[in-house]
Amino acid sequence: MNIMYEESLRRRAVIDSAGRLIGEVDGIFMDPEAWKIAALRIKLRREVADELGASRRTFRPATVAVPTEMVQGLGDAVVLRVPASSLLRHAEERAQPPSGPD
Q1: For the whole model, what pTM was predicted?
Q2: Beta strands per DSSP E along 7-74
């Protein structure tokens, strides 16, 4: 069994499904109950963040959490199953409370 630590993932390039470099891995989110990585925190490149309208602070780059289900592969770089344009939409959908029956 291979164990990959957060330090070994940091700064790995992140490429979307269109083959475009969109940023780099900045950290991980763990699911402590399942003992697995739930998502990767991606630091977006400035032009990608501007294109997506992702909020960022003056001296801090925009970041987005990418669930592991959206990751196609992990090697020298992280390759996503989706284009960059779907990252924020997915994050917004997860932030919305589930609608229940009225």
Answers
A1: 0.78
A2: 13-15, 21-31, 36-44, 63-67, 71-74
